[in-house]
What we know:
The structure is a homodimer.
Chain A: E1 5-10, H1 16-26, E2 32-39, H2 45-53, E3 57-59, H3 68-81, E4 86-89, H4 98-103, E5 108-112, H5 124-131, E6 135-142, E7 152-159, H6 166-189, E8 193-196, E9 199-202, H7 208-214
Parallel strand pairs in A: 1-2, 1-4, 2-3, 4-5
Antiparallel strand pairs in A: 5-6, 6-7, 8-9
Amino acid sequence: MSKKLRIGALASGGGTNLQAIIDRCLDNSIDAEVALVISNNPDAGALERARKAGIPFQCIDHRGFDSRESYDAALVKALQSAGVELVVLAGFMRLISSVLLDAYPGRIMNIHPALLPAFPGLHVQRKALEYGARFSGCTVHFVDKGVDTGPIIIQAVVPVLDNDTEQSLSERILRQEHRIYPQAIHLFAQGRLRVEGRRVLLDPPLSPTEAALTNPEIR
Amino acid sequence: MSKKLRIGALASGGGTNLQAIIDRCLDNSIDAEVALVISNNPDAGALERARKAGIPFQCIDHRGFDSRESYDAALVKALQSAGVELVVLAGFMRLISSVLLDAYPGRIMNIHPALLPAFPGLHVQRKALEYGARFSGCTVHFVDKGVDTGPIIIQAVVPVLDNDTEQSLSERILRQEHRIYPQAIHLFAQGRLRVEGRRVLLDPPLSPTEAALTNPEIR
């Protein structure tokens, strides 16, 4: 029986992506387990989700630290103690430093609610709507030194409708986030992601069934 | 019998987009006619396509002019003499100045082979492949003072495959260009495009059938 990939999730908010990952681990869609949930925010809904799911969780509040590096060192200590192999940022609102990057090189993922390189940063849906884009989506990527810049693992596309608000567009994209984040993690767990420079090659490639799961029909 | 919208096409290259527009005018998918084709390049395939289709054409070579403004003035003169109402840039490799913009405000369209705002400018497919994007596409937009920055009319999405080359990706995108450029022109001809700031609202909106034409199934 092969050992399941141990995931450490960092989350600052409500944790809906975390919940999707927890659920997919439980139903064995992902060959992994969430070993630890850490939030910088004591009120994060993500911590409550971990508690309900019986997953170890900690609040490590950034306000107790003088520097990003010392904060990241505390994160690394907690993650390594829990035997975490893949760090998953699920709505984590702190910038990460090289302390965390160097402890988990090529092993930190993030999800961004746009089709990178379009609309990086904050206020993503507002930017997409103001820009007048007809399509948006979400991107799971490995984290590198930049913000929203690392190698792309999976993307999903959604249409932007003329009567969309930030909320309706966010919700449409969030449904896709809940599909592709677990899938990206599963591909990592299966050892199918090969990073070459900026590109992530899937080896073996997605089967038609798997592709259908990540590339929903656009109408 | 309503008067057909008169299109002036500016093209520097082979003219496959021009051909798609010519063909859709002929089969009445677009309620318009190509009144004039202008190229800055005497060897442009686009001029031959115009000739074959019996459409008036001119080569106005930019090398005969001292400034962008004087060149644009020659373009405007030719376009206005032909009664052009909508200027369509179909692979036109010259930057346009305010002389042309001011003669046809809100009446100049361009197509770009990426999902703007991602990958503007040149060497588009190379950039998309190097970036590792999982999706790309094409964008028809109104032209404003910037490059690849004007209000977006229609976009189409294509998947990027792991074994894509610049050529295979360009070809996949080109097939979508040939669908959405005629459709954008038709919407303009029907008076259905309402520009509000950066956004282009479709009034009335695309019917499900029309939407299916622009938003192909992604698999």
